[in-house]
Specification:
The chain is mainly beta and 125 residues long. The protein has one domain (21-124). It contains 1 helix and 9 strands, in the order αβββββββββ. It has one helix at 5-15; strands at 32-36, 41-45, 49-54, 60-63, 68-70, 73-82, 85-99, 106-115, 118-124. The protein has a 9-stranded antiparallel beta sheet with strand order 4-3-2-1-9-8-7-6-5, with no helix packed on it.
């Protein structure tokens, strides 16, 4: 018995029913934030952009890239063009308890931000 191709189209949506539809970083809230000290830095991630602010410097805006998930870690690699050339931003977000001395608070994520080879450590939620 040969099945009509239209029957396959009826079942196609069911094949994707179990796929994730929300971003594993941004989620339903729409924003993910993290920060660190020595020197102070702040990172905000939305589905539109990634902003990186380093103490005494101008905020940098990078295009958003969907994270790659590995075990309990999410990785994002993005870049932007500047007058000096391409600037790379590599973000690693690990689901592991993190404490900050500046806030004295426990956060659910350890964060590493590598901006062109200079690594910054902090926490996020």
């Amino acid at each position: 018995m040969k099945l009509h191709p239209a029957i396959f189209l009826l079942f196609l949506p069911m094949l994707f029913a179990g796929c994730k539809t929300t971003d594993p970083i941004v989620g339903v809230e729409g924003q993910y934030s993290c920060e660190g000290a020595n020197p102070f830095w702040k990172l905000d991630i939305t589905k539109e952009e990634i902003s990186f602010l380093l103490l005494d410097q101008e905020k940098e805006i990078f295009p958003y890239e969907m994270p790659v998930e590995t075990d309990n870690r999410k990785l994002i690699v993005t870049s932007r063009e500047t007058a000096e050339g391409k600037v790379w931003l590599k973000i690693s977000i690990e689901e592991s308890a993190c404490y900050t001395s500046t806030v004295g608070k426990k956060f659910p994520y350890k964060v590493e931000v590598d901006r062109d080879g200079k690594v910054y450590y902090g926490c996020g939620e």
